[in-house]
Amino acid sequence: MARIAGVNIPTAKRVEIALTYIHGVGPRTAREICAKMGFPRERRVHELTDSEIVQLREIIDANYTVEGDLRRQVAMNIKRLMDLACYRGLRHRRLPVRGQRTHTNARTRKGKAKPIAGKKK
């Protein structure tokens, strides 16, 4: 089993698909990496030699921010926005940020419902 950037890559899948298991490597980036390495699209991970795996690992480490470093960078960006107390930071602090509905739900983020006087008809 190949291990790249701290992630075990599935061996039966195509290299292009297997690389997307790494956080920070999407389909487009995986295609770019395979093009740099000169792999055909149908090449499988179990067909790679040890030297090719080492070369893949070096390309990813040198040119891309992945896994722990990327997660840390994103977390620091969000923390910076929250510390600045800008609009985006306040949204991160108070509301869900992944496109969920907030009109009626989102009680875990918003807290217990507060009654409003005179609202009842």
TrEMBL record:
Keywords from the named record: Ribonucleoprotein, Ribosomal protein, RNA-binding, rRNA-binding, tRNA-binding
Signal peptide: none
Region described as Disordered: spans on this chain: 95-121
InterPro entries given in the database record: Rbsml_uS13_C, Ribosomal_uS13, Ribosomal_uS13-like_H2TH, Ribosomal_uS13_bac-type
Gene Ontology molecular function, alphabetical: rRNA binding; structural constituent of ribosome; tRNA binding
A GO cellular-component term linked to this record: cytosol
GO BP, sorted A to Z: translation
Domain of life assignment: Bacteria
Family that this chain belongs to: Belongs to the universal ribosomal protein uS13 family.
Quaternary assembly: Part of the 30S ribosomal subunit. Forms a loose heterodimer with protein S19. Forms two bridges to the 50S subunit in the 70S ribosome.
NCBIfam families (alphabetical): uS13_bact (TIGR03631)
Protein task: Located at the top of the head of the 30S subunit, it contacts several helices of the 16S rRNA. In the 70S ribosome it contacts the 23S rRNA (bridge B1a) and protein L5 of the 50S subunit (bridge B1b), connecting the 2 subunits; these bridges are implicated in subunit movement. Contacts the tRNAs in the A and P-sites.
UniProt protein name: Small ribosomal subunit protein uS13
Species assigned in the record: Hankyongella ginsenosidimutans
Gene name linked to the record: rpsM
